Amino acid sequence: MAYRSLSLLTWVITLITILLNLYIYTYPSLDCDHCKWKYTYKDVDSLSSIESKLINIPYIGDLYETYFIKETHRGGHGTPSDIRLLAIGDPQINGNWPSTPYIKRLDNFGNDYYLGHIYRLMKPRLDPTIVVGMGDLFSSQWIGDSEFYNRTKRYMTRLFPRPLQQTYAELEFIADHKDIDWKTHYDWFRNNLEDGFFQKPDYYHYSDIKDWTSANLTNEPLFINITGNHDIGYGDTTYQHMARWRKLFGKDNYWIEYDNDTKHPWRIVVLNGLAVDGPLLQPEFQKYTWQFIEVLKNREYHGSTILLTHIPMYKREGLCVDGPRVDYYNKDNCHEGGEYRIGLLKSENHLQYETSQAILNAVFKDSKSGIILTGHDHEGCENYYNFHERNNNEDEPSGEWIASKDVETGKYIKEVTVRSIMGDYDGSLGLMTGHFNNDSESWEFDYTLCPFIVQHVWWAAQIGILSTILLQSINWLI
Ligand SMILES: *[C@@H]1O[C@H](CO)[C@@H](O)[C@H](O)[C@H]1NC(C)=O
Ligand SMILES: *[C@@H]1O[C@H](CO)[C@@H](O)[C@H](O)[C@H]1NC(C)=O
Ligand SMILES: *[C@@H]1O[C@H](CO)[C@@H](O)[C@H](O)[C@H]1NC(C)=O
Ligand SMILES: *[C@@H]1O[C@H](CO)[C@@H](O)[C@H](O)[C@H]1NC(C)=O
Ligand SMILES: *[C@@H]1O[C@H](CO)[C@@H](O)[C@H](O)[C@H]1NC(C)=O
């Protein structure tokens, strides 16, 4: 009797484990509308009639199409390839302290592989051209260099693994485990600011980058990192923060122009949104970031723009979960020893109104299409910034960008606040497709959110595998 119930239990658990694992390895095929690029170019015309019937079956058909039918090209004939950008919202990974209990350590460890599972599954399925970490890669800006390096290593190897040819320089630096040399960085920054170097485009300009390294792995996605408040701080940002960020994650402000000398130019603009409002401990960071915005404003550009920044633009209450809110450090919300922060910017939900207008004007001054991707609020949100012209008789055209759920004017830019990839937000990934419309001769941008599931289901699938092996072994032995 006991044997029969053990056997029954074993098979029930085995079956549940199989179903759970099937789910976690194939979930995008259950939600095809949200987990694919807007356009795919599979060669479905030359399929046999059995295959054609097969691919029309929900789920099974999508799996077959995904894994057995190759994509022949990535854009319409005679038009440029689609831009396929995978956006990762606020992973905010935690670390362990000597006082961290074992159960929390296990949770942190599992969380790395839960997030890593999403990326390892989706990268080959989607084959993105660009992957963007939307900021708040880590959960706190108040960590030492050693912990910053350790989290960076986890980020590069467990969460979003990449070929060693692209990462060895950073990994070697991390392995040395020396404190960051922020004093040299301080001198470099101050000298360049004084010399006016940041007022010129040279420092910010890139073109047609496919790989940051000389490995030239053009089939791998290009990784772009956005500064978040938990990576470098808000008003409390120091040279130490910036030195280690720049060393391991690159510049905080720059652009990459693609296909400039064609009929379909487009660019990516990366902006450090933490250093545009203030007051800052190091006001020179703000000065430098505004010089970047000024350079952008003065740059002649006639293509479409994808703006990537962590903090969303200003919008009225009610459009997203987060309304406008700004906090400054005061004597009640400062830790002891942190009194030097009093008066500085502590946090904000949106960039300030004037700041947002200035950025939108600088980046989207042309009437070309564009899109803004941000992170920060975790819930996710989509809006349109409509440009309302003002009728005045001056030569300078002037107007105001106003956020709304709808397109209301001829000139508008969509803003997407990417939902967080954290388990509590269902392990979501943002998929942005840029497609060149040959008739209107302009880039069209589309965004969809692909949710996975809370982390507990992923855990259950792992525990299920262990239990199944254990129970099946016992059953086999007795
Ligand atoms: C796109 O437009 C160009 C010229 O504007 C033309 O040569 C090309 O054939 C068009 N491609 C498609 C797919 O319509
Ligand atoms: C980071 O990792 C190294 C090597 O594993 C270790 O020696 C060091 O203590 C870690 N740093 C922290 C702050 O835990
Ligand atoms: C990188 O590889 C591409 C082909 O994949 C090639 O066209 C290009 O010239 C290479 N660039 C460099 C700098 O080697
Ligand atoms: C972005 O971060 C990764 C580490 O995850 C690094 O390898 C890569 O070089 C960074 N990008 C830039 C432009 O520095
Ligand atoms: C980009 O293209 C435009 C127009 O074709 C040209 O005026 C400009 O100099 C180019 N910019 C760069 C950096 O090549």
TrEMBL record:
Keyword field: Membrane, Transmembrane, Transmembrane helix
GO biological process: GPI anchor biosynthetic process
Signal peptide: none
Matches recorded under InterPro entries: Metallo-depent_PP-like, PGAP5/Cdc1/Ted1
Segments traversing the membrane: 7-25
Domain of life: Eukaryota
Single GO cellular component term: membrane
Protein name, per record: Calcineurin-like phosphoesterase domain-containing protein
Species the sequence originates in: [Candida] arabinofermentans NRRL YB-2248
Taxonomic classification: Eukaryota, Fungi, Dikarya, Ascomycota, Saccharomycotina
